[in-house]
Amino acid sequence: MAARNMLWVGLVLLGVLGTQANDPNSAQPHFLIDKFLGPWYSVGLASNASWFLEKKNTLSMCKTTVVPSGDGGLNLTSTFLRKNQCETRVVLLQPTAHPGQYTYHSPHWGSVHSVSVVETNYEEYAMLFSKGLDGPHQDFRMASLYSRTQTPKAELKEDFAAFCKSQGLTEDTIVFLPQPDKCINEQE
């Protein structure tokens, strides 16, 4: 259960790559929250977490809808396939003093993670990078590639892989998620 909750948090963390990729704590310059809102598909993930490496080959794409929270943060509602059932989870990212940078408090793990929107063009892709700040998972790192469509361009995948490697994540920690046969399509 704990691994599933952390995995879900990783799936929710939106993402694609950036030119400021060498500093994952650096958010998209002039981040525009209004343009970032709406539906995204998680199409790529990478992490150094052992539970992620154990489960990465069984994961599939999820759909996440991003809406603003009342405090300037982000409310992320994700729908995904788990054990042949559609599940929905909600995560709240708390705002920081810097636009595009957030914190996530994991009640299950008792830990705090920073979450930065590293780069986005708002209409096609976004990349977030998360890392543990406090609690038992301080070494946790995860990069997430999100797309407005279920089929991102090959060059975005290449850029994502390069970003992951620049953050010390190796090729074997990167996964591009297959489309499930249910749970993420508009008509469902």
How is the secondary structure organized here?
Layout: H1 2-12, H2 33-36, E1 38-47, H3 50-55, E2 63-68, E3 74-82, E4 85-95, E5 101-106, E6 111-120, E7 125-134, E8 141-147, H4 154-166, E9 174-176
Antiparallel strand pairs: 1-2, 1-8, 1-9, 2-3, 3-4, 4-5, 5-6, 6-7, 7-8
Walk me through what this model shows.
With 188 residues, the protein is an alpha+beta fold. The protein has one domain: Calycin beta-barrel core domain (Lipocalin). Helix content is 18%, strand content 38%. It has four helices and nine strands. The chain has an eight-stranded antiparallel beta barrel. A hairpin with a 4-residue loop joins strand 6 and strand 7. The chain is globular and about 40 Å long. The chain starts with a helix and ends in a 12-residue tail after the last strand. Mean pLDDT is 85; it is low at 1-22. InterPro entries: Calycin, Lipocalin, Lipocln_cytosolic_FA-bd_dom.
What distance separates the N and C termini? 26 Å
Shape: globular
What is the CATH topology? Lipocalin
- Average pLDDT over all residues: 85
Number of strands: 9
The biggest beta sheet reads: 8 strands, antiparallel, barrel
Q: What is the CATH H-level superfamily?
A: Calycin beta-barrel core domain
Classify the secondary structure makeup into a structural class. alpha+beta
Poorly predicted spans: 1-22
The radius of gyration is 15 Å
Order of helices and strands: HHEHEEEEEEEHE
Q: How do the strands of the widest beta sheet line up side by side? A: 1-2-3-4-5-6-7-8
CATH architecture: Beta Barrel
Count helical runs: 4
- What is the CATH class designation? Mainly Beta
